[in-house]
Write a structure and sequence with these properties.
It is a single chain. The chain has a single domain, classed as Cytochrome P450 (Cytochrome p450, Orthogonal Bundle). It contains 19 helices and ten strands. A five-stranded mixed beta sheet has the order 1-2-8-5-3, with helices on one face. Strands 4-10-9 form a three-stranded antiparallel beta sheet. Strands 6-7 form a two-stranded antiparallel ribbon. α7 packs parallel to α19, α10 crosses α14 and α15 runs parallel beside α19. The longest helix has 27 residues. Protoporphyrin IX containing FE binds next to α14, α15 and α19.
């Protein structure tokens, strides 16, 4: 059995730049029990088995009750009411069938391939604008100048969030994304901040949804708020708010890491950067390899609904389970030479977008944005060099990516050069 403190080491920010040797040690057992009673699932085969196992639940969010304030009116009336309302706003990433499937169907009806394809030209335009603004720069921060604004603008436009409100989501999204980090769930202060943030963003969304119903537009939120599903009817208001927040946050916190991790990796393997510049048609396969080799989402948590026997380990009913996707994507039993970045890799069944019934809804959009971004960066940044390697990382171990990526450049070429 591997050392039962290895997952604590994975969560330790000191290991953020390179958690992969820890994953290799954890993989000595496909399911590794940790000191705190968590079961970490690390091999490709064990992850696949559990992703399709109905005894594994995504309903593992802790209850979010306000801490006592000492004010009886707040403690007995206002806050319990708010807590009750909040528990009804459970996004479908944290739900099991049948509710999950109904809500997801509503979203898929709006998140159509046509709607995503229609974003193509707009994404190329945004990429070009962001780079044009840095024409004469000698240094850029890829995160602040490019990888963050691109997906945020795209998801806001797709949903129909007015551009003047975009800035408000930065802090909200960063805060709420901590709900995916196991340690933040145990931390009272972090929970309190999440509650406040959730209340603020939910109030904003409620107003926006009312506005969409009064003045329908051709955007995803209008579709969700007004159209009926032939089988499921209209989405209820609590679910509508929770779903729109989920889409907004998922659109903020993940694609930024794919673009930034992507450029970081390409700068570490300059021959691949050069190749992408000369042969942009390799981009789709290169992006799949990035999703395997440096994925934006390293793990997701679950709960065992019943006792589960897997690969020689018994996971007890009720135990917290970590699906360590990034480890499965580097499993030598599934991938030849898994620690090698190889954009020519075939049969690349990675877990970058998860799998099974919670497979990422935004995958086609994320792929489209990453392709437009990385091809343009490869072609237009003149002589890019990493100023910090490793770069500083954001705190998250699950949603893992650089906080900043400072590059020295000799300016930015015009789009058609
Ligand atoms: C590179 C970018 C992205 C990555 C790596 C990524 C990764 C993932 C992963 C691993 C899951 C599975 C979660 C689980 O099993 O619990 C997931 C689910 C999800 N993603 Fe993404 N995602 C990305 C971008 C997006 C975007 C842009 C959106 C929306 C606009 C989005 C929306 C969602 C939603 C709604 C779910 C929940 C699906 C469900 O529970 O059925 N994602 N994503």
């Amino acid at each position: 059995m591997p050392d039962p403190t290895l997952f604590a080491a994975v969560k330790d920010p000191a290991n953020r730049p390179n958690p992969y040797p820890l994953y290799a040690r954890l993989r000595e057992a496909p399911v590794a029990r940790q000191d705190d009673g968590t079961y970490v699932v690390t091999t490709h085969a064990a992850l696949r088995a559990l992703l399709f196992d109905p005894r594994i639940s995504s309903e593992d969010l802790p209850s979010t009750s306000h801490p006592r304030t000492g004010n009886p009116f707040k403690d007995w009336i206002i806050n319990p009411f708010k807590d009750h309302v909040r528990t009804k706003h459970r996004p479908f990433i944290f739900r099991d069938p049948p509710d999950h499937d109904v809500l997801r169907r509503h979203v898929m009806r709006e998140f159509t391939p046509e709607r995503i394809r229609a974003m193509h030209g707009r994404v190329d335009g945004l990429v070009a604008d962001l780079l044009d603004r840095r024409r004469d720069a000698r240094a850029i921060d890829l995160v602040d100048d490019f990888s963050y604004p691109l997906p945020v603008t795209v998801i806001c436009e797709l949903l129909g969030v007015p551009p003047e409100d975009e800035g408000r989501f930065h802090g909200w999204a960063t805060q709420l994304a901590t709900a995916l980090e196991p340690d933040a769930r145990q931390d009272e202060a972090a929970l309190g901040r999440n509650i406040e943030t959730f209340d603020a963003i939910a109030a904003y969304m409620q107003d926006l949804i009312k506005d969409k119903r009064r003045h329908p537009k051709d955007d995803l939120l209008t579709g969700l708020a007004t159209r009926e599903d032939p089988q499921a009817g209209r989405m209820g208001d609590y679910d509508l708010i929770a779903t729109s927040i989920l889409l907004l946050i998922a659109g903020h916190e993940t694609t930024v890491n794919l673009i930034t991790n992507g450029m970081l990796t390409l700068l570490r393997f300059p021959a691949q950067l050069e190749r992408l510049r000369a042969e942009p048609e390799i981009a789709p396969r290169l992006i799949e390899e990035l999703l395997r080799y440096e994925p934006p989402v390293h793990f997701r948590t679950r709960k065992a609904l019943a006792e589960i026997e897997l690969a020689g380990t018994t996971i007890p009913a009720g135990a917290p389970v970590v699906l360590l996707f990034a480890s499965g994507s580097r499993d030598p039993a599934r991938f030849a030479d898994p620690d090698r970045f190889d954009p020519d890799r075939e049969d690349n069944q990675h877990f970058g977008f998860g799998g099974s019934l919670h497979f990422c809804v935004g995958a086609p959009l994320a792929r489209l944005e990453a392709e437009a971004a990385l091809v343009a960066l490869a072609r237009r940044l003149r002589n890019p060099r990493l100023l910090d390697d490793p770069p500083p990382y954001r705190p998250g171990a699950s949603l893992r990516g650089p906080e900043h990526l400072r590059l020295a450049i000799d300016g930015v070429s015009p789009p058609d050069a």
